[in-house]
Amino acid sequence: MAYKLIVTEHADELIDNLVGYLIKKLKNPDAALRLMDGLESIYERLEESPMQFPESSDYFLRNRGYREALVPKMRYRVIFRIESDTVYIVGVFHTLEDFAEKLRQNP
Predict the structure, then answer these.
(1) How far apart, in Å, are the Cα atoms of 19 and each of 8, 28, 35, 51?
(2) Which residue from 16, 35, 61, 84 has the fewest beta carbons nearer than 10 Å?
(3) Phi/psi at 76 (nearest 5 deg)?
(4) What are the boundaries of each domain within the chain?
(5) Beta strand pairing status for 76-83 and 86-94?
(6) What is the pLDDT of residues 61-84, one digit of tens each?
(7) pTM of the shown model
(8) What whole-number distance in Å separates Cα of residue 69 and Cα of residue 45?
């Protein structure tokens, strides 16, 4: 079964901010490219089989159906939920960020 993938506006803003930070602040365009490639890889897997990824490690989000995927070879996590045949990407966060609190503030 193929799933439809929707990146929410909030998640898109978070990705833009992360890429901008990697390029402008850290002066590491290679890391920005690796992040984008990693996200693309996760998106492809989500379109095919989103249930392969574990439920969120946060109790509150897990009980609301959120799951998470780690970007390969990077310290970023993609938070998403599945509704019928649609996968909604709601955020991308560094693993050191309090992603659960940030999503509670802006679900």
Answers:
(1) 17, 9, 8, 27
(2) 84
(3) -130, 145
(4) 4-105
(5) antiparallel
(6) 999 999 999 999 999 999 999 999
(7) 0.91
(8) 10
Q: What is the pLDDT of residues 13-61, one digit of tens each?
A: 999 999 999 999 999 999 999 999 999 999 999 999 999 999 999 998 9
Type and span of the H or E element at 94: strand 86-94
Q: Is 105 exposed, middle or buried (0-12, 13-18, 19+ CB in 10 A)?
A: exposed
CB burial of residue 69 (10 Å; 0-12, 13-18, 19+)? buried
Q: What are phi and psi of 54, to 5 degrees?
A: -75, 160
Q: How many separate helices (H) and strands (E) can be counted in the chain?
A: 4, 4
Token pair 């802006």 is found at 106
From CA 3, how far away is CA 11, in angstroms rounded? 18
